[in-house]
Amino acid sequence: MKGFVRVLAVAVSVALILVVGWKLGQGRTGTDAATCAAKVTEVRGIVGSEKEPFLRDSRVTEIFKCAGLRLRIDPTGSREMVDLLAGDSVKYDFAFPSSTPAAEKIKSVLNVKESYKPFSSVMGVATFKDTAEVLRRAGVVQTVGGQDVISVSKLIDLDRAGTSWKKLPGNESSANGNVVLMRTTDPADSNSAIMFLSIVSAVLNGDKPVASAASVTKVLPDMCRLMADQGLKPDTSGVLFEEYLTGGPTRTPIALVYESQFLDKVSTQRVPPDGQHVLLFPSPTVYAWHELVPLSDGGRKVGEMLRDDDTLKDLAAEYGFRPQGRTLADRPNPPVVVEPPAYKILETMLDRAAGCAE
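RESULT FIELD:
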């Protein structure tokens, strides 16, 4: 009988632990059934592809569901997003592009005044430890404000001179005979390549954002060469990042990516903890603000929750983003930052760059 009592007591204790643990888990995510909305409404958004893993995370969708919202998202490139919304915006409750210029264009086209900036991602250069040392000897990797950075002006000089990786000091045994340049996505499709053009054009314009068609004409020859020398370019930042992770330093020695991609601790597409994969800031760099434009009351609620909910901010940080108003120890601020051009200037730049020969 005493043995039975002991077994029963253990079983009750385990059950209590499980119940308490479940309650604590519910409290952490704010999805306790007793406090959740009784009615759930579908909200549909068109979003930049780099945010898809975060918005599809079951913890994120549960928080929104508890608030009465079921997220349905259509990932697409930020530039294509503008065209799709211009043709048919009524089926969407919000647009969530990857940069302020794209958001400003959407607001202008759809006559929307408000928006939300819940988090950002700095543009970074994904490279390798040995590659960074090769670039340091060539003067491309420099120390600015106590941080190692990639000098964009030095990369432009190497591209102008047609310098290949094999011609860099101490790198003569390299199998890479391509010109030294930063790999990017296709600017016709991807916001990260538009950020690349923003960075390069500012450097070519005396470290100031390009603000006129005349300035676009001045910087266009170098921009065309920097894009054309890459040859075929990936359509999305996700494909480019996968090339970096799987292709190694010979195929993709340096690539312009979102900092969030490199620091993402959740998605399957993660950087291995081998000490060989390195993230540096380009100098200068730009912040890519992920700006949500509400197109309905439901979309407005999504924007408010992403901006204000502390648990959603924590999860965004897990995915490598920088939540607005948060200081994160693993994310130092880049030493040199420029603003991207206004969307009208970017459109001119992109239209002119589309004529560059591949």
